[in-house]
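RECORD TYPE: inverse folding
INPUT: structure tokens
STRUCTURE:
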């Protein structure tokens, strides 16, 4: 494998993971960011992103001299053979992706890119962005390639180093092969295609996953009404290889940094060409209804939410991360606060104040005096709580587990009433197991 000089612009989840992992593969990597404080902290070995193995990978890259950090994209790309754009593309007006950061960096680096460099769009961007970036660069000697990321928060390093596939899209086969060669050491299936198709792959994949989650949440609602147990239903479904086990657990809705913005962006992409993508629209609507259903179940359990104290366990959008972006837990908390509930919350990785609730550093403090408790993020430590102590501290006895995470027997022994999604209280005994 040839060692390449690589620049990575942006040091968020995708950028820092990309830079650290490429350095671990032997490449020389310079990561750039506009945030001077973040650059200084990274140079000092301080990684603020909660991601397994990432801090260690950054430290090893720095120690080996293969990974460096600079302020400003121009300084990073000056001698780079390949430049990865790992920039935020948040939801903009009307749900479309906001490409202002990508466009700004393209304008910033166009006159300092070395001749023959390849610019790689790794950010999630609408179809046609590679063409747009090429036009902004205005360099016939610089190729633009799409290389979408498929990194899950909480397992980003593993996903990068052990990918299901690598997608590379370009209108220049030579440029596509140059980028694909960077990952050759990983031995993963590599799919080469045109840039527009590669840009669509990420949206199509994320929207499919969101639809699967919304589908299982709708099935859970139906199970409650007909007396079925969603855990048993999904166990039976998941053994079908066409369906699989993943993304079949009901929850308080999906969120995070990708699925909300990507589903909205897909709808806008479709509308721009005259397609009514009603399936994705229904996926988004079902997700909002799921968050309201959690509130409805709590209201039904306690009678009224106004003036009711609710202990909230979990705020991050998923366990294993400190990311609060579009967290369904926060969406549910906002709905509860709107109805006048008093919220006291605990998350192992959230220690800053949040609007509409009191955040405490101890789970037992969060549930003390609570009329009801709702678990919204499935951190492992919540399953091992002393539920007798929880019961002693509560004013009420209702625990709503939106993640099917807690041990029903432990809560029942403590005298608590466990509610779930997609099952009746009396049937909280776990799914049927295959013998």
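DESIGNED SEQUENCE:
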């Amino acid at each position: 494998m040839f060692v390449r000089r690589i620049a990575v612009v942006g040091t968020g989840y995708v950028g820092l993971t990309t830079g650290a992992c490429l350095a671990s593969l032997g490449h020389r990597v310079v990561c750039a960011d506009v945030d001077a404080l973040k650059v200084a902290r990274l140079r000092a070995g301080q990684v603020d992103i909660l991601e397994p193995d990432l801090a260690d990978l950054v430290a090893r890259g720095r120690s080996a001299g293969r990974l460096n950090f600079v302020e400003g994209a121009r300084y990073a790309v000056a001698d780079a053979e390949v430049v990865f754009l790992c920039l935020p593309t948040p939801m903009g007006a009307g749900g479309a992706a906001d490409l202002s950061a990508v466009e700004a960096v393209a304008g910033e680096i166009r006159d300092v890119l070395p001749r023959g460099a390849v610019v790689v769009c790794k950010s999630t961007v609408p179809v046609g962005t590679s063409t747009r970036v090429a036009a902004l660069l205005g360099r016939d000697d610089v190729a633009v390639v799409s290389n979408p990321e498929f990194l899950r928060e909480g397992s980003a390093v593993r996903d990068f180093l052990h990918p299901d596939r690598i997608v590379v899209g370009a209108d220049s086969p030579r440029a596509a092969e140059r980028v694909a060669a960077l990952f050759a050491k990983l031995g993963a299936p590599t799919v080469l295609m045109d840039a527009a198709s590669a840009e669509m792959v990420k949206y199509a994949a994320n929207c499919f996953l969101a639809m699967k989650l919304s589908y299982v949440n709708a099935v859970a609602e139906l199970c409650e009404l007909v007396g079925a147990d969603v855990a048993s239903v999904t166990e039976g479904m998941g053994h079908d290889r066409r369906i699989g086990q993943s993304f079949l657990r009901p929850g308080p809705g999906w969120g995070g940094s990708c699925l909300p913005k990507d589903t909205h962006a897909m709808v806008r992409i479709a509308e721009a060409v005259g397609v009514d993508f009603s399936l994705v629209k229904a996926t988004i609507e079902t997700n909002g209804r799921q968050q309201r259903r959690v509130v409805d179940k709590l209201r039904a359990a306690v009678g009224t939410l106004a003036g009711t104290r609710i202990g909230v366990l979990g705020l991050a959008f998923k366990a294993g991360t400190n990311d609060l972006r579009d967290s369904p837990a926060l969406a549910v908390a906002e709905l509860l606060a709107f109805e006048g509930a008093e919220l006291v919350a605990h998350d192992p990785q959230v220690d800053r104040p949040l609007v509409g609730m009191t955040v405490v550093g101890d789970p037992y403090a969060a549930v003390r005096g609570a009329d009801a408790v709702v678990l919204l993020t499935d951190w492992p430590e919540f399953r091992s709580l002393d539920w007798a102590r929880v019961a002693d501290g509560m004013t009420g006895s209702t625990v709503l587990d939106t993640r099917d995470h807690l041990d029903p027997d432990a809560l029942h022994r403590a005298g608590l009433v466990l509610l779930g999604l997609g099952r009746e209280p009396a049937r909280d005994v776990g799914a049927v197991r295959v013998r």
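NOTES: Residues 73 and 105 are 7 Å apart (CA to CA).
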